[in-house]
Amino acid sequence: MAKKNTPNLDFNSSWNYAPAPEDTKHINLKKQYDLFIDGKFVKPTKGKYFDTINPATEEVLAKVAEADETDVNKAVKAARNAYNNVWSKMPAAERGKYIYRIARLMQERAREFAVIETLDGGKPIRESRDVDVPLAANHFFYYAGWADKLDYAFPNRKPQALGVAGQIIPWNFPLLMAAWKIAPALAAGNTVVLKPAETTPLTALKLAEIIQESGLPDGVVNIITGAGKTGAAIVNHPDINKIAFTGSTDIGKLIQKSIAGTNKKLTLELGGKAANIIFEDAPIDQAVEGIVNGIFFNQGHVCCAGSRLFVQEGVADIVIRKLKDRLETLIVGDPLDKNTDIGAINSKGQLDTINKYIKIGKDEGAEMYQSSCNIPKKGFFCRPTLFLNTSQSHRIVQEEIFGPVLTIQTFRTVEEVIEKANNIPYGLSAGVWTDKGSKIFNLTTKLRAGVVWANTYNKFDPTSPFGGYKESGFGREGGIHGLSSYLKF
Amino acid sequence: MARIEVLKTYKIYIGGAFPRTESGRYYPLKNKAGRLIANMCLSSRKDFRNAVVAARGAFVGWSSRAAFNRAQILYRIAEMLETRKAQFIEELMQQGSTAKVAESEVNLAADRLVYYAGWCDKYQALFGSINPVATSHFNFSVPEPTGVVSVLAAQDTSLISLVNAIAPVIAGGNTCVVLGSESKPLCAVTFAEVLNSSDVPGGVVNILTGKVSELHTHFANHMDVNATIYYGDDAAVIKTIQELATLNVKRVFIHNKSNGSASDAQSPYHILDTQEIKTTWHPIENIGTGGAKY
């Protein structure tokens, strides 16, 4: 029971943060971006372009080319030629050195990448600066070293490149996902046709610029922009050997179906609805930080977000009270401000989806709690949202919302929470909070999920494999396990 | 008067029991001379669904057995198979093998079980890893069984195809439902009897007889099956399986000569097919680093 005389915490009247906006003057954005095919920026065949906007201001940042089937054909042809004539003939160590170069160039231009990522996608600059961009560079650096060591990773198996990889990535970690896809593909000796998401194409196109600077042979990496139709043309292209997709489970299923009966190799990194489990013996303050990081990191646009909170009954009141207090301190607003905790929702469409689910949650009878913060009038923003008194059958508990919306359930026993946590079609990630080591290992063994964070959450590293169980997809990205997705034996 | 032989009724194997097919249907199995050998169960979708329920029920227990214990049980299957060698040879000959070929098939089946028994507590060290992350965390990855696996065994042999299909799947802690060879089904049922007397818990392996053409869609579209393995070359069947598998993002594995994945090979990588890699993170305390030396 919450004590009656608990004072209300006041975070606003005494202390205010002065704005600390990141400078954008050094950012050099072109008005219009073409397709990166065969080492050159080329105009789309049909001459069509679409706008990419800043979701925090709704202002147009640049026009971006829309690739159609002819353009996809060109890109695949360039990738095939580069594979046959250059990349597959190059000594592996030399291949690796090109990948190292890309990593270095990305590190040198890290701030520029971070600012553009935030402008185009709406994520707080603190995250793009400290997480997305350094991890992306590290990913290239890590996989570069594998290029000439593949025989040690797969002894007695004679690993060989697949050929041309078609890669389709989402809008939540645009540059990082490009790195997760391109780096292992190149290290394994493949060439690439990559399509970034239509709402966040700019950092991938910037990456194309540094790929050009790096002197990587023409056609080894091709980056083409467009929406679902462009993606479908890649998936269905007969001269592609491998499809790697990160995105929603619905689209993932469509892709799996469209390549049925072909010899294309496939990896899918799809949706999630992770359980984040707080036991009575957890370090409560750390756990509350973990809950916040789990669901509000990147506005909740995270496939492994800890979107289902399970709190053991004995500590439910105190955890929920502390969580509500912490919610009040979160700063929602200008993504370029270094104080901002929660930036802009990536697009109008996604904001509509989130609001639809918030309405569904209320209609289902769950109790909603939102932070009282002000949100900017322009741009796409959503207050951090909790739903209490939810149950397993609620749609907001079963379906991926992909926004800053947390559902909260309580539990009594270990068996109960394992059953509830696993009772979902997804299986990407999970979190466990307890000070008891044996309990951690019991839970991490029984949770059907590809990544389990114990007493931490949302941590990523190029050496650490990432990927799901069940309908969260198959194949791993990162680490030694991420290599086999791009090799045949 | 000559003694009247007691003939065996060949039934299917679900949840550790030997029921007849619920469909009541059968197909006659004849030898080369056209004489009836047996009436085999023509398993139905309902049989398959019952088998999946049994396999799911057995999964938690089997996957949490000590790896060493699974190794002993697989070795025990080899022991039981070896003691029934004469029976398997006779059945293989009834289905058209020569004595020599029959004997080598049975020997190979037993040896293959021993091979996979040995892997039960070793593949984890091959396929797991400790990952040197850049932050202050302990991070490791281990293989875990994917769950319930449906398997359409190769059609060309009666016994070894079945062992090839089952051994790597259960060595890795999965449970399975297997369809035996349609034209050579006798050993499937007799092998089920071996499993039944080998300390393999009921439901871990479920064996059906019947037609690929009737059952492959159900093997691939069941929502509580995590992976489907097909040993064969029929392009239409492969495409259908791959399409239906998308309903719940099943993992699909095709073994045939045309894709270079020969069904008769033995390899720890066949175990890896039906494993999921799980990665666990935990913080490492990083305070007072200027203190203790070691």
Counting DSSP H or I runs of 4 or more residues, the number of helices of chain B is: 10
The separation of the N and C termini of chain B measures: 89 Å
Query: Given the C-alpha coordinates, what overall shape of chain A results?
Result: globular
How much helix is in the residues of chain A?
25-40%
In the residues of chain A, how many domains can be counted? Answer: 2
At CATH level 2, the architecture of chain B is: 3-Layer(aba) Sandwich
The CATH topology of chain B: Aldehyde Dehydrogenase, Chain A, domain 1
Sheet with the most strands of chain A? 7 strands, mixed
* Radius of gyration of chain B (Å): 21 Å
Which overall shape of chain B is indicated by the principal axes computed on the Cα atoms?
A: globular
Structural class of chain A: alpha/beta
**Number of DSSP-assigned strands of chain B:** 10
CATH H level, superfamily name of chain B: Aldehyde Dehydrogenase, Chain A, domain 1
CATH class wording of the largest domain in chain A = Alpha Beta
Total number of strands of chain A: 20
Structural class computed from helices and strand pairing of chain B: alpha/beta
Q: Extract low-pLDDT stretches of chain A.
A: none
Report on this structure.
The complex is a heterodimer of chains A (489) and B (294). By secondary structure, chain A is α/β, with parallel strands linked by helices. Helix content of chain A is 38%, strand content 17%. Chain A is globular and about 70 Å long. The termini of chain A are far apart. The model of chain A has no long low-confidence stretch (mean pLDDT 96). Chain B is α/β, with parallel strands linked by helices and 294 residues long. Chain B starts with 25 loop residues before the first strand and ends in an 11-residue tail after the last strand. Chain B is globular. In chain B, the strands form three sheets. Chain B has a five-stranded parallel sheet, with helices on both faces. Chain B has ten helices and ten strands.
